[in-house]
């Protein structure tokens, strides 16, 4: 089986607002077709906001990576991943950061598509190719930050609990004092029965000697460099690593990260950006989340979530499903892991024609 075509498409992901930066929420879908008729889909994105944005990712796929894939065996994603990394280094070297980001986003999309084809060829879902971990569903979590404006829990908190949410992420964006107040207010709003995870949404991972909250510290959802993710784990200030597979290299990069995380006793919880990426990004993240090992307790700390989770709201799920032929099931507060081969879904051609950005 050989690859006969590689086609990239720029799409806007799960964002409902039109009053945004023109590059916000964009990602690059990649369609790879084989001579046998199998088609794989992948997706890559980055925080590029200059010099063409995601158009640069599409250009990298069309002019640099895509031509090298024609005639290759698509069921060797790890071999191809390493070759593309070498090609990117020789082409861009230490060039401008946006070119490095574009190359990693392109590799992410290609790698995910190749794993999709590999799963279809072997009649297995991707998560079964990645590991022996068995997980049939992934819990929703809600991204929340409750400020201590009053001593009474806000009505929104109860509405989320009524919807079945029991795990909440708090983004750390301000001073330590404000972050501590936000974490306490979130705990008060949702009660002791809820799981609380704090996420440091910065480019630098917290260090071991940084002031700590009693809840687990998550980091890495915006990081695109594998070395930075590894350095973050080595700094011993991270309890849960949240790599986004459409940012930093796809499934193959995830397997490498899992090996290193085990040596640092760090949990890995794949992240799916709430407003960046289509249904393919979410389908890939679900497959990744189904394959990661997990443990629920850390000594001297509040318990970790009982299982991996993906921060997502029902309205965003509806938007992501618009891209897909087989919709992702989000019933009962869980994202259900597809057992169909590959990613378990494919892109709706009519939806793509409407949503693709030229």
TrEMBL record:
<feature type="domain" description="Enolase C-terminal">
    <location>
        <begin position="213"/>
        <end position="350"/>
    </location>
</feature>
<protein>
    <recommendedName>
        <fullName>Mandelate racemase/muconate lactonizing enzyme C-terminal domain-containing protein</fullName>
    </recommendedName>
</protein>
<dbReference type="InterPro" id="IPR029017">
    <property type="entry name" value="Enolase-like_N"/>
</dbReference>
<dbReference type="Pfam" id="PF02746">
    <property type="entry name" value="MR_MLE_N"/>
</dbReference>
<dbReference type="InterPro" id="IPR013341">
    <property type="entry name" value="Mandelate_racemase_N_dom"/>
</dbReference>
<keyword id="KW-0456">Lyase</keyword>
<dbReference type="InterPro" id="IPR036849">
    <property type="entry name" value="Enolase-like_C_sf"/>
</dbReference>
<dbReference type="Pfam" id="PF13378">
    <property type="entry name" value="MR_MLE_C"/>
</dbReference>
<feature type="domain" description="Mandelate racemase/muconate lactonizing enzyme N-terminal">
    <location>
        <begin position="29"/>
        <end position="130"/>
    </location>
</feature>
<dbReference type="InterPro" id="IPR034593">
    <property type="entry name" value="DgoD-like"/>
</dbReference>
<dbReference type="InterPro" id="IPR029065">
    <property type="entry name" value="Enolase_C-like"/>
</dbReference>
<dbReference type="GO" id="GO:0016829">
    <property type="term" value="F:lyase activity"/>
</dbReference>
């Amino acid at each position: 089986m050989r690859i006969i075509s590689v086609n990239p498409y720029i799409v806007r992901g799960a964002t409902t607002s039109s009053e945004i930066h023109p590059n916000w929420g964009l990602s690059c879908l990649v369609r790879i077709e084989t001579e046998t008729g199998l088609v794989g889909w992948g997706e890559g994105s980055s925080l590029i906001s200059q010099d063409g944005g995601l158009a640069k990712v599409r250009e990298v796929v069309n002019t640099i990576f895509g031509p090298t894939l024609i005639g290759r065996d698509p069921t060797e994603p790890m071999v191809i991943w390493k070759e593309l990394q070498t090609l990117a280094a020789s082409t861009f070297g230490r060039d401008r950061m946006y070119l490095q980001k574009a190359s990693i986003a392109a590799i992410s999309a290609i790698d995910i598509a190749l794993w999709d084809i590999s799963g279809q060829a072997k009649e297995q879902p991707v998560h079964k190719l990645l590991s022996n971990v068995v997980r049939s569903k992934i819990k929703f979590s809600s991204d929340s930050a409750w400020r201590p404006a009053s001593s009474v829990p806000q009505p929104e908190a109860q509405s989320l609990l009524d919807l079945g949410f029991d795990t909440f992420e708090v983004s750390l964006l301000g001073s330590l004092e404000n972050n501590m107040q936000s974490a306490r207010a979130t705990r008060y709003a949702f009660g002791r029965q809820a799981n609380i995870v704090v996420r440091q949404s910065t480019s630098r991972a917290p260090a071991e000697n940084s002031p700590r909250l009693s809840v687990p510290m998550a980091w890495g959802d915006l990081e695109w460099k594998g070395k930075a993710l590894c350095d973050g784990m080595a700094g011993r200030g991270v309890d849960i690593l949240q790599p986004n597979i459409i940012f930093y290299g796809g499934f193959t990069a995830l397997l490498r990260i899992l090996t290193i995380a085990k040596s640092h006793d760090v949990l890995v919880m794949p992240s799916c950006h709430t407003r960046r990426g289509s249904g393919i990004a979410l389908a890939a993240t679900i497959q990744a989340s189904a394959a990661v090992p997990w443990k629920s307790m850390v000594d001297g700390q509040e318990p970790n979530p009982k299982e991996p989770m993906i921060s997502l709201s029902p309205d965003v799920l509806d938007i992501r499903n618009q891209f897909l032929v087989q919709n992702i099931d989000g019933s009962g507060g869980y994202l259900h892991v597809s057992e169909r081969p590959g990613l378990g879904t494919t892109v709706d051609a009519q939806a793509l024609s409407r949503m693709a950005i030229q």
